[in-house]
Design goal:
The chain is mainly β. It has two helices and nine strands. Helices cover about 10% and strands about 40% of the residues. The strands form two sheets. Strands 1-9-8-3-6 form a five-stranded mixed beta sheet, with no helix packed on it. The chain has a four-stranded antiparallel beta sheet with strand order 2-7-4-5, with no helix packed on it.
């Protein structure tokens, strides 16, 4: 309970577990393919400033709803909330990192994910 009260997480993860979206488990996409990511933030209190390192989202459905922002680099995913993002990948044979932009977590090995393009 003490960690919950201080909001110091041991892990902040993509897809439910540490390493679930890296290496052999990285998202794979062909060049020009539309990639949709449905991002939920289980909270309870930390927000996520979600983005794909090296990409711009073509569309972001704010909080997973019908309101759409276009050409967005980073989107806020509130605690207990969600977002749906879409982007067309145009980079050949490249690793793109997924990030919550919470540097204090990343330095502790948290919140890493990969997307890989293939040509």
């Amino acid at each position: 309970m003490e960690k919950a009260l201080t909001e110091i997480a041991d892990y902040v993860v993509f897809n439910g577990s540490v390493g679930a979206m890296v290496g052999d488990n990285a998202i794979r996409a062909d060049i020009g393919e539309k990639v949709r990511l449905f991002v939920g933030n289980g909270g309870p209190n930390l927000v996520s400033s979600f983005h794909i390192i090296g990409e711009i989202f073509d569309n972001v459905h704010i909080e997973g709803g019908s309101l759409v922002n276009k050409n967005v680099q980073t989107t806020l995913v509130p605690a207990g909330g969600a977002a749906r993002t879409e982007t067309d990948l145009f980079w050949e044979d490249r690793r793109l990192g997924l990030s919550t932009r919470r540097s204090n977590q990343a330095y502790r090995g948290c919140c890493h994910g990969d997307s890989r393009t293939q040509g």
